Every structure is written in structure tokens, then in C-alpha cells.
């Protein structure tokens, strides 16, 4: 058995630079939409890059793009040094990050709240995606911080759930998420774009957005769906 390749893939490493700076990349993703990005990934044979559909924005108009800062945790009754550990995690967040929580399928605790929002915003964090819960919801909304999560609850995680590690590969639903991947989310849910293809996928999604304008114009001009398809359109 030779696990060297797998070990290397799962190890912590420095992020590879992309053809354009990460900030420009994320700002350009914000001008497209998840369905277009999803169609590009489908062309590449990647059918399982969307997080489970139960992970939804706190508000319909929330949209988010940033670089995955992964966090992994699970139900756990111990409290020793929990706050210190959580503080260290928050202090490791970098500008342009999206905090993304693999909770091992938790269904009762909040992995995100008001103070964590404030602390991460100060570090330039763009939002949070939680396969779990959020609390202090009205305060998080007032702070204008996009959060995508499964549920809302008053249950703080302390004494119920705790972090295992951060900036490690994680898995939510069927989706692998590596630190540095691109996280893109809007009203249609959350999509994970592997880092190495993030720029190429953006270019193709921008093309789809432009091309769809022509298709929609055909409908406005009175063409039937059959005529649209005959002219190379799709929907
Ligand atoms: O400890 C928590 O559950 C999170 C929290 O309330 C906060 O960040 O304000
Ligand atoms: Mg709180």
C-alpha cells in the first residue's frame, strides 16, 4: 500500500497562486450566479459540488464568495480550553476568507453567533457557511454578514459541541472542501469550486451569463422554445 499521494493531498500546504489575485477572482464571481458556475462544473463532469440543499442563506438576498477557511467539529461534552481554542481559530482567519464548518452532521448547537461574526469581520472575513446552526440571528443580520446554515437555535456550542481542528480537508454532504477552495453561495445554495480550476470556471461562467442574455432576448422576441433550441439556445 502506498498512501503518499493521498497523504500529500490531505496535508496542510501553502495555497497556489491563481492567474489573478484572490480578491479580484472573488469580486468577479459576485457578478455571476451559482447556476452558471454549476453548469460549468457539470461540463467538467463534476456533479457533486453543491452542499446539501438544507444549507440556506439567513436572508434570500445574501450572496457570498471567498476562500475556504475550513473548521471541523463534532458533538462533545468537554469544555476544557474550549474558548481559548476557539479564539485561536478566529485569530487564524485571513482577509477574504469564508469560514466553512463541517459539524459531523450536528443538529442542535450553534457554531456561529454575533461575537464570532464581529471578530471575524475585523479580520476581513466575507461570511460563514455552517452545516449546523447560528444564534444571535438578528444581531448577525444587523452586522450585514452573510451566513448560510441549516438551522437557527439559542443553543451555544459550549458544553455540547466543540471544534476538532481548522484548515484541514473537510466533507459536507458528498463534497470535499480543501482550505483555499472557492466558496460561492447565493439564494440557490452553496457551491464549492476546487481551487485549481476556479479561474477557468469563472471565465466560462461569465460567458454563460452573457450568452443567456441572447437566449432570453429570443424568448422576449416571441420565439417558441423549439425555435430557441434550433438556434442553439438552452435553458
Ligand atoms: O458561542 C456561541 O455559540 C457563539 C456566540 O454566541 C457568539 O459568537 O456570539
Ligand atoms: Mg453570542
TrEMBL record:
Its cofactor is a divalent metal cation. It catalyses: 4-hydroxy-4-methyl-2-oxoglutarate = 2 pyruvate; oxaloacetate + H(+) = pyruvate + CO2. InterPro entries: RraA/RraA-like, RraA/RraA-like_sf. Gene3D superfamilies: Ribonuclease E inhibitor RraA/RraA-like. Its EC number is 4.1.1.112, 4.1.3.17. Pfam families: RraA-like. Belongs to the class II aldolase/RraA-like family. Catalyzes the aldol cleavage of 4-hydroxy-4-methyl-2-oxoglutarate (HMG) into 2 molecules of pyruvate. Also contains a secondary oxaloacetate (OAA) decarboxylase activity due to the common pyruvate enolate transition state formed following C-C bond cleavage in the retro-aldol and decarboxylation reactions. Homotrimer. This is Putative 4-hydroxy-4-methyl-2-oxoglutarate aldolase. The lineage of its organism: Bacteria, Bacillati, Bacillota, Bacilli, Bacillales.
